[in-house]
Design a protein that fits this description.
CATH topology of the largest domain: Rossmann fold
Number of strands: 15
Strand order of the largest sheet: 4-3-9-10
CATH superfamily of the largest domain: HUPs
CATH class of the largest domain: Alpha Beta
Largest sheet: 4 strands, parallel
Oligomer: single chain
Helix content: 40-55%
Shape: elongated
Radius of gyration: 26 Å
Number of domains: 3
Length: about 475
């Protein structure tokens, strides 16, 4: 069985075959570091992280590159507003990006190249395009000659003639065509600049990713990923300026992650529904947010709500409790076909990284394990260890949603906490606070913990 991926370039699901057997070379567009990244960016970063982790789960060696754009109009503007060099703004928010990514459980990329550290590569790339007639210089600016690349629009399915009509209103009259885009911007007062053969200035946004991707992954690599909003113009322009230079395919597969809305509305500062990843991480554990993202297929839009996060927290607790319980469960005699459940998980994830179906397989697995684990005979040591190993490799290593150590520090403390909860509920019942008693029981049931009342008292167990 092999992994199948929806390729934006072909608009179809295709079997993944790497350029080099057993290896995956993958590039994901990273942040422009002028502010903290928002929860829409976080979804793309988390999904890309899971794709990388799953390839590793399937035995591939992954070279994963995520750039940091540290020179851009927005960075310069913020530096001017704050009265500090743009490099200071970029350094501050690049550090914040890495810090918040770590809090999200996003593993560091194999390389996090910064645009300002790849300037020689960009200049060489642009010079090559000038030399072969794909770019031209006007007053120190360099533009890509879109008409020179016959396949322009193959990713976004946009037509050059239609783009020209739409661009003529505010077209730069110095350009040969209104759709030609900047590779290099001539030096302006108060902006950082670099020396280039055609004059001082700084790179355009699009050329940065092409140069960084090819520097670390080669002229052609396996997968290029990013948010849907980057398909045009960013990724379209990346393809054009890269393939016009190399005359080789830039990336074999293009993966794009769906948009994120807030309470069914587009996230916007003007609507007051704009949240940074840092703000959400202060309110919810990273594992819960990751689980919430992964309950929706990566290509589908995701509606972000606090109610949804609360529900995700409850659902995820069932997997966490089982993982913790398996760590110290005594050996019994019952068995579970762990291999069959793993096959279901793999089949789901091989189908274009279908994380909702992957979790469906895991929750079915958890139900079956709980049934045997809490039956009279218990779960034998082989099944118990295999079950915990599968949970570890999937929920910890692939999805990053289960902690290897419970918040309580282990089953002993969990039992102590439950005994306290039972005592408080018993006290409520003695005082005829039936509503409170039922609320405790029902709330625990939602978390996967079942209370059993009898004449001998109340006992608890993990539910199915």
């Amino acid at each position: 069985m092999s992994i199948a991926i929806y390729n934006t370039l072909t608009r179809s699901v295709q079997e993944f075959t790497p350029l080099n057997e057993g290896e995956v070379r993958m590039y994901c567009c990273g942040p422009t570091v002028y502010d903290y990244f928002h929860i829409g960016n976080a979804r793309s970063f988390v999904m890309s992280d899971v794709v990388r982790r799953y390839f590793e789960f399937r035995g591939y060696t992954v070279t994963y590159v995520m750039n940091i754009t540290d020179i851009d109009d927005k960075i310069i503007r913020r530096g001017n507003d704050e009265g500090v060099p743009s490099s200071q703004v970029a350094d501050r928010f690049a550090a914040a990006f890495l810090e918040d990514s770590a809090r999200f459980g996003i593993r560091p990329a194999s390389m996090h190249p910064r645009a300002t550290q790849t300037m020689d590569d960009m200049i060489a790339h642009i010079q090559g395009l000038i030399d072969n007639g794909s770019a031209y210089v006007v007053d120190g600016d360099v533009y890509f000659r879109v008409g020179s690349y016959q396949e322009y629009g193959k990713l976004s399915r946009k037509n050059i003639e239609d783009l020209e009509v739409g661009a003529r209103v505010e077209a730069d009259t110095r350009k040969e065509s209104p759709v030609d885009f900047a590779l290099w911007k001539n030096a302006k007062p108060g902006e950082p600049t670099w020396d280039a053969p055609w004059g001082k200035g700084r790179p355009g946004w699009h050329i940065e990713c092409s140069a960084m991707a090819m520097k670390y992954l080669g002229r052609t690599f396996d997968i290029h990923a990013g948010g849907n909003d980057l398909i045009f113009p960013h990724h379209e322009n990346e393809i054009a300026q890269s393939e016009a230079l190399t005359h080789q395919p830039f990336a074999k597969f293009w993966m794009h992650f769906g948009f994120l809305n807030i309470d069914n509305e587009k996230m916007s500062k003007s609507l007051g529904n704009f949240f940074t990843a840092r703000e959400i991480l202060d309110k919810y554990p990273a594992e819960v947010i990751r689980f919430y993202y992964l309950q929706t297929h990566y290509r589908s839009p995701l509606n972000f709500t606090h109610e949804g996060l609360d529900a995700a927290k409850t659902g995820l607790q069932k997997l966490q409790v089982l993982y913790d319980a398996l760590g110290e469960a005594p050996a019994g005699s019952g068995t579970v076909d762990v291999a069959a459940h793993e096959q279901r998980f793999v089949a789901a994830m091989d189908d274009d990284f279908n994380t909702p179906a992957g979790f469906g397989a895991l929750f079915d697995f958890a139900r079956d394990v709980n049934t045997v684990l809490h039956a009279e005979g218990g779960l034998d040591a082989t099944s118990r260890d295999a079950a915990r190993d599968l949970l570890h490799r999937t929920t910890v290593e692939v999805f990053g949603v289960v902690r290897t150590e419970s918040a309580g520090g282990g089953d002993k403390l969990l039992d102590d906490v439950m005994q306290l909860v039972i005592a408080l509920r018993t006290e409520a019942r003695q005082e005829k606070q039936w509503a409170l008693s039922d609320r405790i029981r029902d709330g625990l049931k939602e978390l996967g913990i079942v209370l059993e009342d009898s004449r001998d008292g109340t006992k608890w167990k993990l539910g199915e």
